[in-house]
Amino acid sequence: MNLIQTINKRLYFYLVKELGYLFLLSLGILTFLLVMSRIGKLADFVINKGVELKDIFLLIFYSSPPYLTFTLPMSFLLTTIVVLGRLSAENEILALKASGINLKYIFYPVASLGIAITLFGMLNTNVLLPKSGELFKQTLINIVKKGIAFDEREGVFNDTIPGVVIYINSVDIKSKELAGIIVSDNRDKNITQMISAQKGMIHLDPISLNLNFILEEGNLHRWEKANNIYRNLMFKDYTFTMNLENMLPSNVPLRKRPYEMNTSELREMASHANESDRFDWLLEIYKRISMPFSSLAFIFLAIPLGIRRKMEGRFSGITYSLFLFVLYYILMAFTEHIGKIIHLLPLITSFLPNIIITIIGLVLMRKLNSEDYIHISQKTKYLWDRYIEKVK
Fold first, then answer.
1. 3-state secondary structure of 298
2. Entry pTM
3. Average pLDDT per run of 10 along the chain, which is 392 residues long?
4. Distance between CA atoms of residues 166 and 213, nearest Å
5. Which element (helix H / strand E) includes 202?
6. So where are the chain's domains?
7. Considering only CA atoms, which of 315, 319, 356 is closest in space to residue 335?
8. 125 with 288: CB under 8 angstroms?
9. Which one-letter DSSP state was computed for residue 270?
């Protein structure tokens, strides 16, 4: 009995170590690939703005939480199936059975990792995710501000803003007042205008990204090409406004998306929405709990599938896990659609995929110690042949 308890402890720490190493590796790779797919769209933006290395790292860091929602349970599922599949392929599972160890002991180290991932997932979806979206946009806005920092570019022509060239003769560092301002605006193909002013100020609205030139004592020259009309206007006070939203990448809107809102904002939106939209807002709230809990549901599914996988190719574990994860999201989309049609409670709708996965896993766990199983690929082929035979 003491020998079995010693083996159980060694098995526990051995599996925790193996699972932990592979989980961190797979999480890092999957998250990096998904984040770089987003950062890749910003490559031209980053290069043209001469962004500092610090800002690039901040963009990558703030881009991670939205993808961690998916990569945390995906990495856990992949890790469990691959590690247990390797143990089964190398006959270590058979050795454990021969030693009289119940394979359900494997549940404890896997469950420990699953619980830790679930807790971190809850932190990610409810705290990190809403804050990261705001910080990501703020970093981009700061990059735009650096690109149009006129107070650091005296006596040069600044063409950072597409279609606009700005010249500032001098800047008062203390008051931030500009002197000797010339603005050439060619954003509209049918209208060309030139503005000159003796002095002025600049104000950038961080919410709307409106850049306002508050000018004094100057001239406005405007040529309307379509009608061939030239206008000349002298002014004492004039405000010239440009919106810089087009300087941001197209995949970064200024308005918050649902996943970027915190729970209180989502509840506020739900309270003012109609019945159909209220379901979507409430579902978004409960998914922030159900998505992290998918790791716990995968525990019951991954253990029997990993042990039963045997020798089916080096990358079969990765194939199985990705396939199961795709099925999970198809199931999630299906239950959301059905729940909205039959007016199911959003709380039940959000947790229904986890419940289904857990039930399937518990059924498979019942025969965990039995030897009367075949490879998953063989079972799939057998079912497919039966289906073709019935169709014929």
1. helix
2. 0.71
3. 57 84 91 78 58 76 88 91 81 69 77 92 90 81 66 67 80 78 84 87 74 85 83 86 67 65 82 82 89 90 75 60 85 88 88 91 73 52 59 50
4. 11
5. strand 191-204
6. 2-144+256-391, 150-243
7. 356
8. yes
9. H
